Amino acid sequence: MPSHKFKRIHYPALALSFLFFSSLASADTVVKWNEISLKSLKKKGLNSNLCTRILAIEAIAVYDAVNTIQRTGTPYRYLGNPNPDASAQSAAAQAAHDVLIHYAPETKSYVDSILNFDIKGFTDGNIEEGRKIGSASAESIIKFREGDGSEKPDESFPGPLHPAAGQWRPTPPNLQPGINKNWRLIKPFQIYKSSQFLPAPPPTLKSRNFQIAESEVLHIGSKKSTVRTDDQTHIAQFYKQDAELTVNEVTRELLSAHTLSLGENALILALVDIAEADARIAVWDSKYYYIYWRPVTALNEEKESQIGIGFEPLLATPPHPSYPSGHSGTVTAGMEILKRFFGDKNEILLHTTTPGEPTRTLHSLSEVESENGLSRIYGGIHFAFDNTVGQEMGRKVAEFIFRTGPHKLNK
Predict the structure, then answer these.
(1) What CATH number should be reported for the domain holding residue 103?
(2) Which distant-in-sequence residues (6+ apart) come within 8 Å of 110 by Cβ?
(3) Which residues lie below 8 Å from residue 262, measured CB to CB, with a gap of 6+?
(4) Are 328 and 318 in contact (CB under 8 A)?
(5) pTM of the full predicted structure?
(6) Is 387 in a helix, a strand, or coil?
(7) Rounded to 5 degrees, what are φ and ψ at 410?
(8) Of 38, 65, 258, 336, whose CB has the highest number of CB atoms within 10 Å?
């Protein structure tokens, strides 16, 4: 894929307000359907790997549909016949609708009603022509992603038969086998291959790096920790929601606070959702390449040290290898794309799905990355190097997608 220049659009930092689902009727069509899609997929119970794949497909369908009409950027996959008289808003809504009912058919009645309501208020062109373009764009990317590996049954990973020190094995409390081992085989959206950014191996168990990280998670990540602050506990609980919820909320908030065109919003969301989807594919390749153990295993089963015996992390350990952190890679990939358009300094009001946790006000996209990554250490489910390397992978994925993905045309 050839690289190209992407003209950066920079806007001053503004105090931003959260776009509530109840106020979506007044939202930008692209922003509105991103939230509809994400919340519908989460209601369906999809994990982050499955969800980010469909979100990327939805965002691409919407972008290509709008771009077919407005011709503001390079296409990702579909570029239909020019029809400047067609409604770009109806094209965007129809594209998102069609992707959603394809992958979550149980939502059809719900999304049909939203689409039918929306199109009554569109006044930017021929509604039916826009809908045709939206459907064609959705069909194009759906067909393109057929056979990408996601249709194969989930491959679980019980761990090595006789795991050595440092190797992953099922973790308490449920001792589940590792999930989504096959995700490393999914065809990426933009990066060349899942192993393109394979990191160096994790630190050896006798290294100072490992010993420091192990001690840190023992003391600050234990459910019974006496050194973790109240705010650190809140951070751990706040960010335990699926990472794509954080990424897409920040994106919608920034888009809603700035007067961008429909095409610009569609482009930014496409790049963000492609980045988080590819980051997860890349991270999952690394996870099952190194099959590195979790802190709860290291502290409770390492024979050479008894210091951590009885360690229980604040958060339940997810059932897959530790190195690197998927949470960190996902959020960082999304934030790094957003920095290219809005700069780092932005005041952001974040919400969480964790019951009882209050909103958090952050002052930069880097702060979102930092808190999200640290939450995994405060929660006792990752080592510091899992987080650092996950973030490094997220940055590399974002940089590659920013250089090689769809981009705004200079007019």
Answers:
(1) 1.10.606.20
(2) 40
(3) 28, 29, 30, 66, 70, 88, 89, 92
(4) no
(5) 0.92
(6) helix
(7) -85, 120
(8) 65
